[in-house]
Amino acid sequence: MELTAHDIITWMKKTNEKIQSNKEHLTSLDQAVGDGDHGINMARGFKEVVVKLEDTSYESVSDALKDTAMTLMSKVGGAAGPLYGTAFLKLSTSLKGKSADYTHFLNGLEESLAGLKQRGKSQEGEKTLIDVWSPVIEKMKESDDFDASLLKHTAGDSMEKTKDIKATKGRASYLGDRSIGHLDPGSVSSFYVFEALAETIEGGR
Amino acid sequence: MELTAHDIITWMKKTNEKIQSNKEHLTSLDQAVGDGDHGINMARGFKEVVVKLEDTSYESVSDALKDTAMTLMSKVGGAAGPLYGTAFLKLSTSLKGKSADYTHFLNGLEESLAGLKQRGKSQEGEKTLIDVWSPVIEKMKESDDFDASLLKHTAGDSMEKTKDIKATKGRASYLGDRSIGHLDPGSVSSFYVFEALAETIEGGR
Amino acid sequence: MKKIVNNPEYVVRDMLEGLIAAHPDSLKQIPETTVVASKDAPLQNKVGIVSGGGSGHEPAHAGYIGDGMLDAAVCGEMFTSPTPDQVFEGIKAADGGAGVFLVIKNYTGDVMNFDMAAELAEAEGIEVEKIVVNDDVAVEDSSFTTGRRGIAGTIFVHKIAGAKAAAGGSLQEVKNIAEKVTANVRSMGVALTPCTVPAAGKPSFVLEDDEMEIGIGIHGEPGIERKRVTSADEIAEELTNKVLEDIEFNTGDDVALIVNGMGATPEMELYILNKKVNEILLERGLNIHKTFVGNYMTSLEMSGCSVTLLKLDEEMKPLLDAESSAPAFRI
Amino acid sequence: MKKIVNNPEYVVRDMLEGLIAAHPDSLKQIPETTVVASKDAPLQNKVGIVSGGGSGHEPAHAGYIGDGMLDAAVCGEMFTSPTPDQVFEGIKAADGGAGVFLVIKNYTGDVMNFDMAAELAEAEGIEVEKIVVNDDVAVEDSSFTTGRRGIAGTIFVHKIAGAKAAAGGSLQEVKNIAEKVTANVRSMGVALTPCTVPAAGKPSFVLEDDEMEIGIGIHGEPGIERKRVTSADEIAEELTNKVLEDIEFNTGDDVALIVNGMGATPEMELYILNKKVNEILLERGLNIHKTFVGNYMTSLEMSGCSVTLLKLDEEMKPLLDAESSAPAFRI
Ligand SMILES: Nc1ncnc2c1ncn2[C@@H]1O[C@H](COP(=O)(O)OP(=O)(O)O)[C@@H](O)[C@H]1O
Ligand SMILES: Nc1ncnc2c1ncn2[C@@H]1O[C@H](COP(=O)(O)OP(=O)(O)O)[C@@H](O)[C@H]1O
Ligand SMILES: [Mg+2]
Ligand SMILES: [Mg+2]
Ligand SMILES: [Mg+2]
Ligand SMILES: [Mg+2]
């Protein structure tokens, strides 16, 4: 299977729907361990992404992802804006001039992860969205084509596991041990991103 | 009967006791129609009056009343400070060089009332402490000696009647018709003053 | 009641100590009084300007002490007018031989205590004049009330009378300009939450979770109407229109504006309100000469705001614009 | 949630309009951005100073724009770091050819967004340097956190870096002095009540009626300890001692002090706190060069305060004392 520019638009629309309907949930999670704006920020950003993608016609996956990245970068703010912006920009750059087949796409996601780590000066196990992106990508490497159910489950499990981690990056790190027991908001929004990707794939089959 | 300087001290001590134990009541009443400081202000003032009177020895009723007046004037503040200060100062001045027999004392109270009216630019029926001082003095005129029970009852009834008056002076006047149904805080503190005077007289019999 | 205080009975004393400690170069406390004065007061041959009132309205009034504004401020107990002897101390601290001008807000207690102080001062040969500020349009100005209350418009009286005195104006000239300001200034406020006097321990009134009180006084005195909290734009319209209705404003008139916070309202909200107030004034064809947004005349931790408009003329304008070193009103 | 707002999504936009309307002579908004700049920015051959961060901390940051302080402030959404493109606009607005200096508070989002903006600026040939302020001693400075947060101490960085730039300092000189200030400034705060982001609609955390949180962050981030509200004196001791412990202070050292209100705390309470803070510092043998009491770095309508101490030297002192025309920090 190969993703098209149209698939990217579907992916982002689905992500947006999930984020809009879970805006308050994300904000509550961020109120518990951060400053309570994650839902508001992500909702503002993805709403704009959908507007942008609907207003433009795309030839390539890379172009659609680039606009997604730039819109997130300029509309989300906070920690999540540069992080998601970087992730999608790296994916876009990696796919430039290439088809979005499984191998290329997965390579692109690896670039995204590297970008996240560099931008956030962080790594796995620090209770950030990296704890969803990294295991999802690891799991994808074991497969050789898109697998919606694998994606969903890995993302979901990884998100759940952030509960047990003690935060050492981002605002939640101020809580120290008290961060344990709470989901990481960025990991939850990342779960929506991958769940939406899974549904896009399913729809595309 | 004739009041002595010692009686004045007793009177003020008894007034102070009543005000201290009703400080919160007076403040609540003032919260309903004013700014909620009447109890606090009167308690601060009368506490100082007692300290002052206990620290000094007095030859005359007039001198004890003068110190009472000056202390209230400089410790109470707000509307009540100048009003009570003026009332006791007029009483003191009127009794200067005189014995505090019934006639002289009553004359003095009439001077007090005139002083209150002048200082407050107010008259009967405006829902102020004048609505206690004035009827008490009127009633006292019908008698030719101190009458504790008359004093208490007139003061008490008059205080109660302020409930039905619409305020046209002081902070309560901002409430207009909504001031009806509330006791006037200054009338309640004035009731304590006259009740204490009645008890002083009773004690002196 | 959650407050950063020690003994509630000593809040004013403690505050004054902390205030002087923060401004050792510009302010002094007159020993054993609650009077704060400019470090170099009295200034010889300058009319002294004295204001004051109950505490709890900070930065009013001590924050307005400075060159071009007040010489002394008399601080009463919480929401309680200061006593005549204290006001008299304030007058003496400000008296440089050219007379002293008193700025009084129209409350029975303030008027009586300041009047008595003026009598004491005159008995000692100090010439005293005064103004009673009554800018609050929420109160009906009739014989059935004690008249309109003095609220944030008082700041403009401080500023313009202060500038006149600093410019060498005589006591009578200072009085004349203060009367002009008072005749041309109007305000109205709103409260979203009440405040608690520390020694009282409970709020002075109660508002439901969705209620506001239009026309509130700065001691929590009742306003015109209690209603559901509306939008910033609607609040701006309600307050501004009520103020605009009260005196004649003509197209092209210069006005000065205060959007005043009651204490607990974030500056962000005051600016949001100011946006709409500006639009209304511009639509009315008025020329906004100067705008002041901030906490100028507060009610402890009350949340809410007030809108003050001063209709300016060519005499008042330069006096409003003149320099002031007062920490709460630097110009 | 009771607030004077219109649509909660547009609070920042509305606020900026009201802000510019209030300061038409000194401030401008860069069209279609959330950047506020000095009316006469950029100044040729002066190092431009740019600060910013999430909104909700007013008067931070736009209130510090003025001669001798900031050239531009970038306003993010509520408690949300501004985006790289906006910060880049701020940099361009402040760039007069001598380079631009960024004052960043140490939060992951701020650091990332400002870094990316610096990259964009450098790609366009604008020289950029920066400081990350981390004065909050409530946070452990270890590899297990993102490091200490930037809070009210940031104001001193604005002031002193701004004065250095105004005095003709080079970009490197501005950076050097900003690093010195950051190395010598420490703060700690306390919250008595939480605050509510308008679009969130509910408070960011809950405190019981008798509780306070020591070491609170300016976005409601958790502190060190939650305990019963104590007296002003005890709060002053707790905050000041924690700050004093953190760097070496010697008898006779000059310090500058900020007693900062979090938004809803009356000025009266800040002065009451200041009284005790002063006593503690004097007892320690320190020389209080200057004290600032007021709302400088707020968290909407949070009630509480913070204490900031800057250990001064002969280089910083005149820069702190230098003139500033910023409305929130006039000197
Ligand atoms: N250094 C970091 N590296 C990777 N992810 C991070 C880092 N810091 C924060 N995050 C992610 O960002 C999320 C918070 O985003 P958001 O609430 O929008 O930003 P802010 O903390 O600035 O308010 C966290 O839940 C976490 O997943
Ligand atoms: N003009 C007036 N004439 C006579 N009494 C008055 C007048 N104004 C107020 N009072 C009395 O003063 C009382 C209020 O006193 P207090 O609360 O101490 O002063 P304030 O209103 O300044 O807070 C009222 O209850 C009323 O009895
Ligand atoms: Mg957040
Ligand atoms: Mg009262
Ligand atoms: Mg009072
Ligand atoms: Mg944030």
Fill in the keyword field for this structure:
heterotetramer, A: 205 residues, mainly alpha, Serine Threonine Protein Phosphatase 5, Tetratricopeptide repeat, two-stranded antiparallel ribbon, 9 helices, globular, C: 331 residues, alpha/beta, Rossmann fold, Hypothetical Protein Tm841, Chain: A,domain 3, 2 domains, six-stranded mixed beta sheet, 8 helices, 12 strands, 31% helix, 23% strand, binds adenosine-5'-diphosphate, binds magnesium ion
Describe the structure.
The complex is a heterotetramer, with two copies of chain A (205 residues) and two copies of chain C (331 residues). In chain A, strands 1-2 form a two-stranded antiparallel sheet. Chain A is mainly alpha-helical. Chain A has nine helices and two strands, in the order βαααααβαααα. In chain A, α1 packs parallel to α4, α3 runs antiparallel to α4 and α4 (61-75) runs antiparallel to α5. In chain A, 69% of the residues lie in helices and 2% in strands. Chain C is of the alpha/beta class. Chain C folds into two domains: 9-183, Rossmann fold (3-Layer(aba) Sandwich); 185-313, 2-Layer Sandwich (Hypothetical Protein Tm841, Chain: A,domain 3), CATH 3.30.1180.20. Chain C contains eight helices and twelve strands. The model of chain C has no long low-confidence stretch (mean pLDDT 96). The chains are: A mainly alpha (205), C alpha/beta (331). Chains in contact: A-D, B-C, C-D. At the C-D interface, α1, α6, α7 and β11 of C face α1, α6, α7 and β11 of D. One magnesium ion sits between chains C (54, 79-80, 109) and B (35, 37, 78).
Summarize the structure.
Chain A has 205 residues and is mainly alpha-helical. Helices cover 69% and strands 2% of the residues of chain A. Chain A has helices spanning 5-21, 23-33, 38-55, 61-75, 80-95, 102-120, 130-141, 148-161, 185-203, and strands spanning 2-3, 100-101.
